Structure formats: structure tokens, C-alpha cells
Amino acid sequence: MLFWVIGLSIYAVSCTALWLVTLRKAKRIKNKLVQYRDTEERSHRLKADEAMQLNQNFQKFVPRQFFDHIYKKGGALELGHADEDNVAILFCDIRGFTSLSEKMTPQELLNFLNSYFLRMNAPIHDNKGFIDKFIGDAIMALFDSPEGSDCDKAQDAIRAAIGLNRALILYNQHRAKSGYSAVSIGIGIHFGPVIIGTVGSDDRMDTTVIGDSVNIAQRLETLKSIYNVDIIVSEQLIAMADHAFVSRTIDWVRVKGRNEPIKLVEVMTHLSDELQQERLDTVDAIQKGLAFRMEGNLREALSVFRAAKKQHPQDPILKQHVTSVEQLILHGVPDDWDGVLQLGNS
Q1: DSSP state of 242
Q2: CA-to-CA distance for 232 and 249, rounded, in angstroms?
Q3: Pick from 161, 218, 169: nearest CA to 190
Q4: d(Cα 142, Cα 320) in Å, to the nearest integer?
Q5: Which residue spans traverse the membrane (predicted)?
Q6: Are strands 204-210 and 185-201 parallel, antiparallel or unpaired?
Q7: DSSP readout, 184-195?
Q8: Crossing angle for the helix pair 298-311 and 283-295, nearest 10 degrees?
């Protein structure tokens, strides 16, 4: 009996010892599995963070909206891919940039441009636009609100232009405190069809937006030096925006590289109420003067523009019309004159 009890005790101790050993092994295996799982999770998180960081960095060079255009129709990012869309195109650049840059060292110039672009970025993105590219001191932005209508796109672009002018006021205040001169910009906007695609070679691609609409928007921006107003847009754009902004027609022109005339419109919503009203008071005179010019009755046109300029001597549009009609009278007009001002050198 005693031997049986001793044997049973030994067996129980052995089982307990074996159970403890097995338990410890199970714990070690479990700990290793937990460590492996944690390592895998950390690895996945790290890879996900790296991918997200890479994606964010990549979007600084290629806007996310560009990929939206490509993938919305099941396309792939490859050379020669093209997508057509109606968008609002905005160009903005610094007036007198060449003379301004000549006074700076290369590093000062780079710091200035980055400081300027940093402030110009927000009004564009806040109004559902994206910067397609920087061209020297110029900005080319597109407004193509995927969820919005063509009217929304046009209005977004105009709101962005208004925001750019307000941002410039704050920027110039900052420059004045630092002893720097004020910066002036010109903005041109047009609405129309464009081709959004990729160009380049097998080992080097770039995104691009091409089309007549892009050329028109760029030409409109250059007219700041002629008309000396902040925002010049095409009649197509202001009509697409449902005339929701304070504006006035300022001229009919042909720009370089295009035969079809363009009706120019000045957006004035960002101006003070007093200045808006002063410029609105000239609308009838401008329309009347343009009508005479279109008919070829240049002396009547000049009379109208001079009378209006006498009442509103600070209006830049009236100054331009007086000057241009005087030049037309002095040098004569071609036999096929249709009243549209040719701006071949703009």
C-alpha cells in the first residue's frame, strides 16, 4: 500500500512537473507569437507610413486632382494619357519681376519666390483649385470641382482671384514692415475645354494641360500691363459664373496667336464700395465708345472716352481707351477693320 501511495505521488509530481514545463513552453511560444505579431504590425505600420509620406511628397510634384482625372475613367498613369474636360484656368504673375529680380542675389530671389508662393497657395486650394505648375514667377492653376457644375468651377476661380488680391495686400504690409517695396500682380482667367495628359519619354514624364483655353488665359494675364486692372477675365468665364460678381466689360481685343476676338471683363468685387461704384458709373460710356469704335467712327469714340475720362480721371480703362483711339486716328486702321483692338505684341 505504501509503495502504491509513493508511486502515485511520484507520478503526480512528474505530471505536475511536465505540466509546468509544457506551460512554460506554451508561454514562451505565445510570447514569441505576440512579439512576431507586434513586429509584423510595426513593420506594416512603418511601410504604410512610408507609403503615405511618399504619396504626400509625390503630390507636391503631381497634384492629386491630376490623378483623379486619370483614374475616374479607369485609366493608368502612362505616357500619352489624355483626358478632356471643361475647366477654369487662372494665370497669375508678378509685374515687373525682371527688374525686381535684378536687385537680388540668387538666394534672396529664391527666398522671395517661396515666401510669395506660400501666400498665393491658400486662396487657390481654399477655392477647390490646384496649382498645375509654377512658371518662373507665374502660377497656373486649374479649377475643376469634380462634384460641382461648370458654374461652380468658374465661380471658384473668381473667388480665388479675389483671395489672391487680398493675400497680396497682407503680403505687401509684411514687406513694408521689413523695408521692401510692394509687389504687384496680374491675374487672367478663362473658361473652356482643355486636354489634361502626360508628355515626355519612357524614363521622364510630366503632366501638362494644353489647349486654346490655356493660351487665352495666359494672354489675359499679360494684359495687366495695358489695362492696369487687377483681374481680367473672358466674357465666357463671367457668363459661366452667372454674372455673380461685380464686373464691367472693358474692351474687345484680339490677342497674339488667335483670330477670334475676346470680350474682356474686369472683376471688381474685391475693390472698395466707393471704387466699385465709380467704375460702374463708366459702364455706359465705355459701351458707347466701344460701339463707335466698332463702327469705325473713331472721332466720336474719342470724344466719348475723353468726356468720361474728364469725369473719372483715375479710371485706368478710360486712360487706355483714349490712348488707343488716338493712336488709331494717328496711324489709321486697316481696310478690314472690324473695331476689335489688335494686341499682337501682348
Answers
A1: T
A2: 10
A3: 218
A4: 30
A5: 6-23
A6: antiparallel
A7: -EEEEEEEEEEE
A8: 160
pLDDT at 346 over 50: no
CA atoms of 284 and 249, how far apart (whole Å): 10
How many Cβ atoms sit within 10 Å of the Cβ of residue 198? Answer: 17
Is residue 25 over pLDDT 80?
A: no
* Contact yes or no for 288/299 (Cβ under 8 A): no
pTM of the model: 0.80
Residue 197: predicted pLDDT? 75
Q: What angle do CA 67, 185, 91 make, to 5 degrees?
A: 30
Length of the chain: 346
CA distance 105 to 127: 34
Q: What are the domain boundaries of the chain? A: 24-61, 78-245
Please give the grid coordinates belonging to residue 187.
Answer: 491675374
d(CA 13, CA 16): 5
Say how far apart CA 253 and CA 306 lie, in whole Å: 20
The H or E element that residue 338 is part of is none
Is residue 154 within 8 A of residue 240, CB to CB? The reply is yes
- The whole-chain average pLDDT of the chain stands at 83
* Residue 271 cell numbers, joined: 475693390
Cα–Cα distance, 272 to 37 (Å, whole number) = 64
Distance, C-alpha 156 to centroid of its chain:
10
- On the question of pLDDT at 278 being above 50, the answer is yes
Please say if the pLDDT value at position 29 is more than 80.
no
In the numeric block, the cell 513593420 is attached to 43
Q: How many CB atoms lie within 10 A of CB 291?
A: 14
Rounded Cα–Cα distance for residues 113 and 120 (Å) = 10
Which SS3 state, helix, strand or coil, does residue 113 take? Answer: helix
Q: Which CATH number fits domain 78-245: 3.90.1150.10, 3.60.21.10, 3.90.226.10, 3.30.70.1230?
A: 3.30.70.1230
